[in-house]
Specification:
Oligomer: single chain
Order of helices and strands: HHHEEHHHHHHHHHEEEEHH
Distance between the termini: 95 Å
Number of domains: 2
Number of helices: 14
Strand content: under 5%
Number of strands: 6
Length: 470
């Protein structure tokens, strides 16, 4: 007679588990897990490409109308160039405060109020609130039309998205194409020769100027690799299967075209910050990189962009769509070596200490410098000569407004923000980490209110004049 086992038959547990697992795999995720948010994006798409494309093309006009209505509500978007003030490549710098004030108040009224009063009365200017992505629920890289046109002409590579267009007008964006200045060959001035650098022309422009490692690094920076919206899968956002994007599609000529995206390191979607593409000029003096500044070298940043930022911070999706794994010891190093020689634009009124030469500056500019290093306290985060302290600061703007949903973006705390260098600042509109400030004047008003330094109108005007010299 068989003696009964002291242990239960394991199949009594395994078989029911297998049945439950099989059922779960057959059910939609929402039925199994409910509406619980996930850190991961869906990997298997249950619609064919033509269905996705048709649906999104149909939704696009309403999405863009909503995005443009938000901009019009917040800002004066008119073309108002400052007289006699241009960027390095000759494009006019836009002037004036563009953020619209709430009805019935002035900037002086707001500056006299406490943050909690502004919050209670709902008076924080809308243009000072976090700026959503043009379609925040979708996100992804979006390029200005003039960049799309140039890349299509040079390479036949179309960066058009069938679901979305860029939102800000061209006159509020940086020079295009921007100039390129090299720390290694300051004698050459702008080495771009007025061209957008791509695979088509990089060798002709830079052979004999760069060393072989730098030249190879530049080649990689203008080589397209798969990205979340531009790849070969059915959930891409390009009409045709796509080779991908290049580093210089956002950081055109080692600068910026103000392309936007969403940070990859925040979840859920509505809390992700939209991005203003920062310039790569002067990265050799910077020490913090990435949207949350977790990266400490330009090598870290270069590798991270390919592995994570291109794919919304999701390594599963990156594998699916064709992540380009760069080799750290050569490819990453070569790319970083080129980036490290991208110089700030010339600032002829500054001396070797990064301060104004009294013999070259106007009285207004000199007064502005005094405000910068005095009453405004700008220098505490932006010390000369490069005007960054290479750290982060939390402005706590949430003191001024109630948390609220704005076009799919939960406007709440910004958290710590990197101190960007102010050298060459007039070449890099729009401003702040998410493009919410369109001009230098907007930026001065924003910090005057948020920091509570209470500058006079003359002090603000003089500060703008000084910042244009950097």
């Amino acid at each position: 007679m068989t003696r009964p086992s002291r242990y239960p038959n394991p199949m009594r547990f395994v078989l029911p588990c297998l049945v439950l697992l099989t059922v779960a795999l057959m059910l939609p995720a929402a039925l199994v897990f409910g509406d619980r948010p996930s850190s991961f994006m869906p990997v298997v798409i249950d619609e064919d490409f033509e269905t996705i494309k048709s649906r999104m093309e149909e939704e696009k006009p309403e999405i863009m109308a909503r995005a443009m209505a938000l901009l019009e509500e917040r800002y004066d978007l008119s073309d108002r160039p400052a007289e006699g003030v241009t960027m390095s490549g000759g494009k006019a710098v836009q002037e004036g405060i563009r953020v619209r004030l709430p009805d019935g108040v002035t900037w002086e009224d707001l500056a006299a109020m406490r943050p909690e009063e502004i919050r209670a009365q709902g008076l924080f200017p809308r243009g000072f609130m976090p700026l959503p992505h043009p379609n925040h629920a979708e996100g992804g890289m979006v390029f200005p039309q003039h960049h799309i046109d140039e890349i299509l002409e040079q390479e036949g590579r179309d960066l058009t998205r069938f679901d979305l267009d860029y939102d800000l007008p061209e006159h509020l964006l940086p020079d295009f194409p921007p100039a390129i200045f090299l720390t290694t060959r300051t004698d050459l001035g702008d080495v771009s020769q007025g061209q957008v650098v791509t695979l088509k022309n990089f060798f002709e422009l830079f052979n004999g100027i760069l060393n072989p490692k730098q030249l190879e690094g530049l080649r990689l920076l203008v080589t397209p690799f798969p990205q979340q919206q531009f790849n070969q899968t059915d959930d891409r956002r390009s009409a045709l299967p796509h080779r991908g994007v290049t580093c210089f599609d956002c950081h055109v000529n080692g600068h910026t075209n103000a392309a936007t995206h969403l940070v990859g390191d925040i979840r859920p979607q509505e809390f992700r910050h939209s991005i203003d593409t920062p310039t790569l000029r002067g990265v050799n003096i910077q020490r913090l990189f990435g949207s949350q500044r977790a990266l400490k070298t330009v090598e870290d940043f270069t590798e991270f962009e390919q592995r994570a930022a291109y794919f919304d911070g999701d390594p599963v999706i990156a594998t699916k769509k064709g992540v380009n794994i760069l080799e750290r010891g050569s490819q990453v190093h070569h790319m970083s070596e080129f980036q490290a020689i991208l110089d700030f634009p010339p600032a002829p009124k500054l001396d070797v200490f990064g301060k104004l030469d009294p013999d070259k500056a106007t009285e207004a500019e000199l007064r502005g410098q005094e405000v910068f290093f005095g009453k405004s306290r700008c220098h505490e985060c932006h010390p000369a000569p490069y005007y960054t302290d290479n750290t982060m600061h939390n402005l706590r703007t949430e003191r001024f407004f109630e948390p609220q949903m704005i076009n799919g973006r939960m406007a709440s705390a910004d958290g710590p923000i990197k101190t960007f260098p102010l050298r060459g600042i007039k070449d890099s509109p729009p401003y702040l980490h998410d493009r919410r400030l369109l001009t230098i004047e907007d930026t001065v008003e924003f910090f005057n209110l948020v920091t509570g330094v209470k500058l006079s109108e003359q002090e603000k005007a003089d500060l703008v004049a000084f910042l244009r010299c950097l």
